[in-house]
Structure formats: structure tokens, C-alpha cells
Amino acid sequence: MLNMSQKKPEKMIEDNGVRLDGRGPKDLRPIKIEVDVLSNADGSAYIEQGKNKILAAVYGPNEAHPKHLAIPDRALLRCRYHMAPFSVEERKSPAPSRREVELSKVITEALEPAVFVEYYPRTSIDTFIEVLQADGGTRCAAITVASLALADAGIPMRGLVAACAAGKVEGRLVLDLTDIEDKGGEADLPLAWMPNLNAITLLQMDGSLTTDEFEQVVNMAVEGCKQVYGLQKEALKAKYVAVKGEVEE
Amino acid sequence: MSDLPTFYERKEIVTPGDLLAEGDYLAGDNTYKEDGKIYATRVGLVEYEDRRVLVVALKAFYVPSVGDMVIGKVIEVGLGSWLIDIRAPYPALLRASDAFSRPFKPQRDDMPSIFDVGDLVIAKIIAYDRTRAPLLTIREPDLGKVERGQIYEITPTKIPRVIGRKGSMITMLKQETNCQITIGQNGVILVSSRSPKDEQLAVMAIRKIEEEAHTSGLTDRVTQMIRSEKGDVKHVPEET
Q1: Do A152 and B43 touch (CB under 8 A)?
Q2: CB contact under 8 A, A154 and B61
Q3: Which of A95, A146, B73, B149 has the most CB atoms lying inside 10 A of its own CB?
Q4: Distance between the two ends of chain B, CA-based, in angstroms?
């Protein structure tokens, strides 16, 4: 099959630092977030980050099923990361792949420190993340949007979790890698961060970096998370601020 | 109010993790304290009451509390008890002995004829401690099966808004719409009246309260809305 669009271009970053999509090295892709988009789930959120489109829904806390999974002293937080068959260029089998099982696990672990699971023993909180369209950095966008869906469901949290990746492409350190940059670059480092506690809840890396570069990349990713966090807060308040503005003019 | 730093205006909207106050404050509802700093745990409106900092949540689920009146749905008829969904993380238990005036005998008494799956029940919580399912009773006046009316569900944290200060909102609602309104603390509201139109009107008013719960001057706006709606209704001939 001829696959023009995914062919690796000769150069991913111009000499002046401009990337394929016109961004500078330290720019995020444009982000649009909406909260409370589904009426049947207890909480939900939707994010568009560049070409990524991800939907998250939360149910709970409810009685845990199957019952043997219930934990006597805290709630069971479950996340399912799933990619729609149409989310990538070649149809993906809808069955959970090895990669999706891994991402479900790391996303759960990135979110759990933020949730007061000990408040509701024996219950389960279920988060469903559907990637509708993927273009690199979906695990970060998934964490960003899932933490908003949890907050929207009214689940008490220590704080929101914002996530962002940074990495190295053609010898330059860049923020928020796209799929092409991720595949053609030297390193990719997704990071999830809790702004109020200044805690990192997810840190992965593939590729290779020197220790100096690693430190710089982590700091860049945290800076990216700060920007994401601002947008998250805005999105959570948006609905209420709109109503308030309407009736209190 | 003490003069240690607080970071928001009263009634400002906050999100989980927002730093609300620092220093000698007490953490109230929907907040937590770490290293002398108080943070929000839910989306809501911040309140500073003397030394207590709290957040009135804009969306939350119901957590049972002893003494609450709730409206629930029967989900299972068991042996000697009913399992009732009260929109809380834990399903509640209503004992059969509670519903029969004489000692309950499974051979003689038919439980589904009292409450069957799908029935709505107004009940009161008499015991709850997170280690066991909340226990309900219907042995008090005004409790028991819901026979008629309309059900409207809102987020439980907005129930105080529907009741209003010293019951101002609910008294007004009952008066203006001619409806009987039963409020379950779990966010389920039962509206019943002879005329379905009045019921509709009351539900409309409650929906408005829910949507605008975080704004001020709400009672007046709702009264106004009901009156203007009633004005419209008058033009339509009453079907009897």
C-alpha cells in the first residue's frame, strides 16, 4: 500500500527551529478541551490536541463488580485506554492490544495518586478513554482528559493531573511530539504532573538522551504541563461561568 | 476572619487542587490540608467562614448520612430484605420486618406484593458507617412507596439550594405551583399534583434552580419565571 502522508520527510526541523506543522521547538499543539459532553456517564470530557481527538467518561464510585476485585480499604480505580479502529491510518483491530493494556495500566497509576480512593472503600471508579483519532502523544492527552472527567464526575481529588511529552528530534529538544516526530526522532518522554503538589505521576522514555538532555527535557515537559493545566482549569469552569454571566448581567 | 492569606474571593469558582488558604485555617467540606495549606478537592464555590474554609461542590454524588430522607428504587427482592438503589456508592438495605406490622415469616408474607423491583420508596437512613450497607426504615409518617407524581434527579449538593434559606425556596415552589414536593437528600425530588401541568411547571422551576444554583438572586428569578409561565398557561383551556 502506498502511504504518502506517513513517509518520513527529509528534514523534520528547519535550521531556524520551525517544525513540520509550523511550530517552534517549545510550542504545544493547539488544544481544545470541553467538559461534560456526555449525559449518560457521571462525568466526561473531550480533548483535541493537534490532530488527537480523545473522549473520556467516568462512572462511579459504584459497587465493585466482580465483587472479588473490591478492595476493603479503598476504591478500585480502573481505566481503559482504547483506540477506535478508525483512529490510525490503517484499521486497528478493536481488541485491546499489548500496547493498550500497558497504557491502561500506566494511566491508572498516573491518576490514582490524585484521587481520594481511601474515602470510598469497596467501590470502583471506572474511567473509559476512547481515542478517536491519534497523532502521537495520546497517553498524555488521555491523562489530561481523564483527570477532567474524574473532576466532572464529582470525585474528590487532591488536584488535577496534567500531562505533556517532550523529546529530541534531529538533535534538538522539542515539546509535544507528533506521531512523525516520535517515530523519526531520537527520544520521546511523556510526563504527567500534579501542579499543586509539584509531583510527577508518570515518567516514561524511549530512545536515548544524555543526563543533561534528560534534565532539560523533563523541565520542558513540566513547562508544557503548566500550560495544559491552565487550559484544564478554564475548561472545568467554562460551563458555570457561562451560566453565571448570562443571568447576572 | 483571620488575616492570614486566602487566595480567592468568596463564592469564586475553584477546581480540584486550587490553593484556597495558607496557615491557621480549618479544612471544611470538599477541601484537604497538607503542610498548612488548604486545597479544594472538587469543582465548586469557595466559602471562608471565620477560620473554616470550605467548598460548596457544584457536582457530587450522594454519600449516605444517618437521618437523611432519601428516595430510592428497589433493585432486588432478597430473602428477608430489599436492596435499594439510593444513588450512593453503596446500595441500601430495607429489612422486611420493617415493612410488616407483625413478625415477618417468609412462608406467609409475600415480599414482592409490598415492594417489587422497580418500585420507588421514600425512606429514612437509620444506620450507616461505610463498613456495611446503609440501613433504611419506612416506619415513620410520610415514608413508604411512591404511588404517583414525577421524579426529577439533581446533583445532591444542590438540594440545599432547592430548599433555600430557612425553606424559602421550597415554600415558594409549593405555593406557586400547587404541588406536593418531597425532597430526598440523595438528589431525587418527587413532585405530585392533581394537574400534570402544575407538575411540569414545578419540574421546570427545579431544573432552573439546578442550572443556576451557583448564581445569586435565584429565588426571585424562579418566582418570576413561574408567574410568567402561569400567565401563559391561563390562555390554554383547562382539560378536565
Answers
A1: yes
A2: yes
A3: A146
A4: 59
